[in-house]
Amino acid sequence: MVFTGLIHEIGRLESMTFAGGHGRLSIRAPHTAAQVAVGQSVAVQGICLTVTARRGQVFTVDAAAETRRLTTLSNWRRGERLHLEPALRAGDPLDGHLVQGHVDGTGKVLGLRHTRGSLYLTVGLATGLARFLTPKGSVAVDGVSLTVDAGPHTDRFTVNLIPHTMRQTAFADLRMGRPVNLEMDVLVKAARTGEGALLPGAGNTAASPLLDRLLARGFGRLSPKGRT
Length: 228
Known about the structure:
The chain has 228 residues and is of the alpha+beta class. It is 17% helix and 37% strand. It has two domains: 78 residues, Elongation Factor Tu (Ef-tu), domain 3, CATH 2.40.30.20; 112 residues, Elongation Factor Tu (Ef-tu), domain 3 (Beta Barrel), CATH 2.40.30.20. The C terminus is likely disordered.
């Protein structure tokens, strides 16, 4: 399944139960519930989950124990506002950037700075994720396609949330120290992990100057429409 990181609706968590490590979540979202069918995929806070039931304005998804371990799911509470995006279908516009719904790890909110209507969000990185970021490259934060504004450093990066993004998402709920789901750009991950084999003498963590220049010029991105 493929997503774009453009949020279609903000749903609310109705209930969440766990049994044997697995979770079952019911989410109230009128537009999404009307669009998806049982067996189809939907990204919830950037996590690709399968719809297992649908009734009225509420749909249900199941989450594996591994999903609980790698994401922020266990921190969610009833009433939580959640970013939702159904999977792309043939003919849908390819805005944002390619998002798989496979969370690479979680980050922590380290900074929230309001400037001229925008919010500069600084996120702390888990070890090993920084090499998949590049200035002006893409990253999905809680399922939202964003552009790296500053950094990346070895332990953090900053994105600029413009007013439109704030209106279309639940980022207004962010607080210092709050964990967020992170998915690195799949194209950068493919290039970085392949560098050792494709570039003689390049180590696994070495950044390719050519790759950095291409990404800085927008290669590998989808249409910028709707991006921040």
